Amino acid sequence: xxxQIKGLHxxxxxxxxxxxxxxxxxxxxxxxxxxxTVNFDAPDVYHLYYGDEHGTPGSxxxxxxxxxxxxGRPGAGEVGTTSFAIPKGAIPQWVERxxxxxxxxxxxxxxxxxxxxxxxxxxxxxFALVETDDGRAPWAGVSEDAAIRGFHSAAMRLASADxxxxxxxxxxxxxxGRDGDVTRFAVPEGNGADVIDIEAVPGxxxxxxxxxxxxxxxxxxxxxxxxxxxxxxxxxxxxQVTPVIDRDYFWAIYFRTPGGVLFEVATNEPGFDRxxxxxxxxxxxxxxxxxxxxREKLExxxxxxxx
Length: 307
Fold this sequence. Notes:
16 strands, 8-stranded mixed β-sheet, 2,3-Dihydroxybiphenyl 1,2-Dioxygenase, domain 1, 5 helices
């Protein structure tokens, strides 16, 4: 069993517009845009990152906004709900805030004894705010007594849970409980974004990715040495793992899980301040070296983002 993984690093999803996506995460949820760059494989599409002041691993939601992309179709084989941690007692403030801002899909429930506020993103994305004790420092986009502390969990909808459950256990997660059709796993002594839920949905049709869909979830390791240890262990277990890829702000490896969800293992190093000082994160368009020659073209065709 692996011991190197410390919880979630980031969650990456698809969107249909850059400005609407930016407005939702900065103005509605009160997160900080910590990086404005481009998709390494499709540089005419942004890659936008939102999180806490520093873009701390475990706090970062990222998006590829493909202009006018059709919405995804929910189903099996995907992350259905991405949950953020908020302080206990904060849900009423968030109900008032999200209602006043026209956010859809508001509903409250309890899972594993924790109060949740469910809501939709601008492309139908499934989100929840979970009340919990969490000592992580928030970005000051919302009052401190209510602000998001980082990720709480990601919940996968799978036609069959068994193989993915075994994978999570191999990755260092312990099964800590069951609530109806949902099984909860947590990594001990993690980074705060410690929880993965598996919801069994036998008979559900397969999800179709589009705007509002999670593209992949990334798990955090301290550095490249720990990442290589994880890569070798996964390969030895039979997983087809990519080579290490330099993503400028972290190094990444990817593999597909038995349930169909794309997993990434990302390093905490070097961080989002490698090319911008902390006071100005996310302000300028940053391009990877291989696309630097495209700057003039990209600045002309990419959707302007205000705020």
